[in-house]
């Protein structure tokens, strides 16, 4: 379908969508020379000028004499019909006003600025008068990245020199300084470079994925492959196919900390680095990425969930790696699941989606079963590696010392590993030193001043931290409640405390802690991971950061310190999440030649979920989960929505919730079940009180439309905020 560009002549009325909280389109007159549908424009609004997008013909409902003229048309590619459609569909699905949708789609700094220049350095012809180590590193960096240009900051960072070294070399013509446009195209990726030698299984899987991509029709495929089977290698072939078709590809990954490693893999496969889009990218680079994606000059984007809202010109493939990962759900501002919206995005532009996972979400598994999604399996590990043996360690039968979390049985396994020169991983999904700090005199637990949550001690950083709002305070020496000196005690383990225990028990072992809050830069983290992979560590102590996508070839023994942790609490996905996390962590073991073992420390070895994890009957586990969810009428067999009321005034928040519950007859008439309102499990976050309601409906109930009418009819005072979370993933 070729889109006919609609053009509005000068002075014609056009409807402009802005990101301002107005919830309606504004009429403007087209400027001199006219304007295209979808154009990004700058319009006057009161005394200000704001950015907007031409969304259609003006409605003429406003006083014609007051209508102002578009000030300027921005020098960026107009928003395509397909994108406008996508934003409208996401808006309807998530009950988000269009202005907020537009904000998501325009999150590039300096959109209104004219193209600008920057100073960069490249290799020159001159020879240095004398050579120093620092100078050599600059020359090496430029030689190694043949033809690439760097800003002074980039070059000094990569070469590890001060900017004055670069200046000195510039004076002698060894490097030359150039002015170039800031927003330059990304280098061309070459899909024809040879891939790794794929195994027969991998070849079959890759061929199936490539065939789907080649149809240039909408397709969603579940790529289910056991940990270490080479899913990444396989879906990179689908990316190659997409590039051969001349279309753009997006790869979503769940953890920013992993991007550096991933970008390297793309560079090895396609010859150059792709565009990157996530919160760790500089403003300049974000702007470049947004513009170049829009101009069709970025072929592959690697990014976090919001990369879905970049202005692709010809999107042919979206890969969602570790599709079950909870980080794909955004739970503030616009509540959306990037995985689900990726499917929506692709369906609007005849593109393929690949959902890759060793442990897919039940939703995706069911869609694979019913044939709504295609399914491609990789059931064997790459090379000589086989899946690890798994077993439980029954903590009820182990002699556990006080403040000790490594059982004698697990310690024995680690010791044997050490003797054989193999690595072990001790896994605990809890950041910090200890989850609770209690006063032994009065029993007070130190809490956050702004949330109904305990503060977590982080000894590495030397403070207490709230994991809800991020607030920190120094570790007090006296109890804030009874003022007793020296009575505060840590209760329970976090990953830092576990590391202390490991150091005590294995004094000769080299121990390395990997947790997402160790404030390491992405490069430093990659460096650490490379060191671990090469054998510089005997014992890794880590949180779920290590569970995701790392290859540690020497790692043979995985010990899960508390397998029961995720099973507590009544979350409908508790079983699924525990299953996924445990299988994923265990999957770090034995990825090379030596067979791995994984041990789950548990108090309930007979729990069906623990048995399923250890037994490895994955299909059986999903079948059982599916039956349970079907009986309960919950997703994916029923629909759910969470309603969250927040505000500083607790009474006002409750009143609104109560009032809206009373005025919900229209919802009940449709068969929607309403639970609550009740105080949220965490009843206060960042000083805001929180009340929740939960809606449940059968699959065929038009939930969104009903909720939209219900919300729009309610008179909600300014001091209370009502958020609607369709398909909620968390219930805190
Ligand atoms: N055909 C191949 N040739 C060479 N190396 C391969 C091949 N297939 C996989 N590998 C290597 O095996 C390791 C695991 O592959 P990959 O990371 O793609 O697996 P995965 O299925 O994505 O793993 P996980 O889900 O556990 O993160 C990687 O180091 C990868 O480079
Ligand atoms: Zn807090």
From TrEMBL:
Belongs to the helicase family. PriA subfamily. Residues 212-378 form the Helicase ATP-binding domain. Zn(2+) 2 binds at residues 448, 451, 466, 469. InterPro entries: DEAD/DEAH_box_helicase_dom, Helicase_ATP-bd, Helicase_C-like, P-loop_NTPase, PriA, PriA_3primeBD, PriA_3primeBD_sf, PriA_C. Gene3D superfamilies: P-loop containing nucleotide triphosphate hydrolases (3.40.50.300), PriA, 3(prime) DNA-binding domain (3.40.1440.60). Coiled coil: none annotated. Keywords: ATP-binding, DNA replication, DNA-binding, Helicase, Hydrolase, Isomerase, Metal-binding, Nucleotide-binding, Primosome, Zinc. Initiates the restart of stalled replication forks, which reloads the replicative helicase on sites other than the origin of replication. Recognizes and binds to abandoned replication forks and remodels them to uncover a helicase loading site. Promotes assembly of the primosome at these replication forks. Its EC number is 5.6.2.4. Zn(2+) 1 binds at residues 439, 442, 479, 482. Component of the replication restart primosome. It catalyses: ATP + H2O = ADP + phosphate + H(+); Couples ATP hydrolysis with the unwinding of duplex DNA by translocating in the 3'-5' direction. Binds 2 zinc ions per subunit. Its cofactor is Zn(2+). PROSITE patterns: HELICASE_ATP_BIND_1. This is Replication restart protein PriA. The gene is priA.
């Amino acid at each position: 379908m070729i889109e006919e560009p609609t053009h509005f002549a000068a002075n014609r009325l056009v409807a402009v969508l802005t990101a301002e909280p107005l919830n309606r389109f504004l009429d403007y007159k087209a400027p001199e020379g006219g304007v295209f549908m979808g154009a990004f424009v700058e319009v006057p609004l009161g005394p200000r000028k704001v950015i907007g997008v031409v969304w259609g013909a003006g409605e003429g409902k406003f006083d014609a004499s007051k209508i102002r003229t578009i000030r300027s048309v921005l020098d960026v590619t107009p928003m395509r019909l397909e994108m406008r459609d996508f934003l409208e569909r996401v808006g309807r699905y998530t009950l988000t006003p269009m202005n907020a949708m537009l904000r998501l789609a325009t999150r590039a700094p300096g959109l209104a600025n004219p193209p600008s220049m920057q100073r960069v350095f490249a290799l020159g012809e001159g020879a240095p008068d004398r050579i120093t180590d620092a100078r050599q590193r600059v020359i090496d960096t430029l030689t190694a990245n043949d033809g690439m240009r760097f800003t002074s900051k980039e070059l000094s960072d990569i070469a590890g020199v001060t900017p004055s070294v670069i200046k000195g070399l510039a004076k002698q013509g060894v490097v030359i300084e150039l002015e170039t446009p800031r927003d330059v195209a990304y280098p061309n990726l070459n899909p024809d470079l040879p891939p790794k030698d794929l195994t027969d299984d991998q070849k079959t899987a890759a061929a199936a994925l490539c065939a789907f991509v080649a149809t240039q029709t909408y397709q969603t495929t579940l790529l289910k492959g056991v940990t270490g089977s080479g899913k990444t290698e396989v879906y990179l072939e689908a990316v190659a196919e997409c590039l051969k078709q001349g279309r753009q590809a997006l790869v979503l990954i769940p953890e920013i900390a992993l991007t550096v490693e991933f970008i390297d893999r793309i560079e090895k496969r396609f010859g150059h680095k792709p565009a990157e889009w996530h919160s760790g990218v500089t403003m300049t680079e974000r702007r470049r990425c947004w513009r170049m994606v829009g101009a069709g000059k970025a072929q592959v984007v690697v990014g976090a969930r919001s990369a879905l809202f970049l202005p692709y010109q010809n999107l042919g493939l979206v890969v969602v790696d570790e599709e079950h990962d909870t980080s794909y759900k955004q739970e503030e501002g616009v509540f959306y699941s990037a995985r689900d919206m990726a499917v929506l995005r692709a369906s609007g532009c005849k593109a393929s989606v690949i959902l890759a996972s060793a442990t897919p979400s039940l939703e995706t598994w069911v869609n694979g079963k019913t044939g709504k999604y295609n399914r491609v399996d990789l059931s064997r590990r790459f090379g000589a590696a086989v899946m690890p043996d798994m077993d439980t360690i029954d903590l009820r039968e182990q002699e556990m010392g006080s403040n000790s979390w490594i059982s004698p049985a697990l310690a024995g396994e680690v010791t044997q590993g050490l003797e054989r020169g193999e690595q072990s991983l001790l896994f605990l999904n809890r950041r910090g030193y200890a989850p609770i700090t209690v006063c032994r005199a009065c029993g007070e637990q130190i809490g956050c001043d702004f949330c109904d949550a305990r503060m977590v001690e982080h000894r590495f950083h030397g403070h207490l931290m709230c994991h809800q709002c991020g607030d920190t305070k120094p570790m007090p020496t006296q109890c804030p409640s009874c003022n007793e000196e020296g009575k505060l005690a840590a209760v329970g383990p976090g990953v830092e405390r576990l590391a202390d225990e490991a150091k005590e028990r294995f004094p000769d072992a080299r121990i390395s802690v990997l947790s997402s809050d160790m404030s390491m830069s992405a490069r430093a983290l990659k460096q650490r991971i490379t060191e671990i992979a090469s054998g510089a560590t005997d014992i890794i102590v880590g949180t779920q950061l290590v569970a995701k996508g790392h290859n540690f070839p020497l790692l043979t023994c995985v010990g899960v310190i508390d397998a029961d942790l995720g099973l507590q609490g009544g979350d409908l996905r508790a079983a699924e999440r525990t299953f996924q996390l445990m299988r994923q962590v265990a999957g770090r073991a034995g990825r090379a030649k030596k067979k791995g073992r994984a041990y789950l420390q548990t108090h309930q070895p007979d729990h069906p979920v623990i048995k399923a994890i250890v037994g490895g009957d994955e299909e059986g586990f999903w079948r059982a989960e599916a039956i349970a969810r079907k009986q309960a009428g919950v997703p994916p067999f029923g629909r759910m929505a969470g309603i969250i009321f927040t505000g500083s005034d607790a009474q006002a928040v409750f009143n609104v919730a109560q009032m809206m519950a009373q005025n919900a007859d229209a919802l009940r008439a449709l068969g929607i079940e309403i639970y609550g309102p009740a105080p949220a499990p965490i009843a206060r976050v960042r000083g805001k009180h929180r009340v929740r309601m939960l809606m449940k409906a059968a699959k065929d109930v038009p939930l969104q439309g009903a909720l939209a009418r219900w919300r729009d009819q309610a008179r909600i005072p300014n001091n209370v905020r009502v958020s609607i979370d369709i398909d909620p993933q968390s219930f805190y």
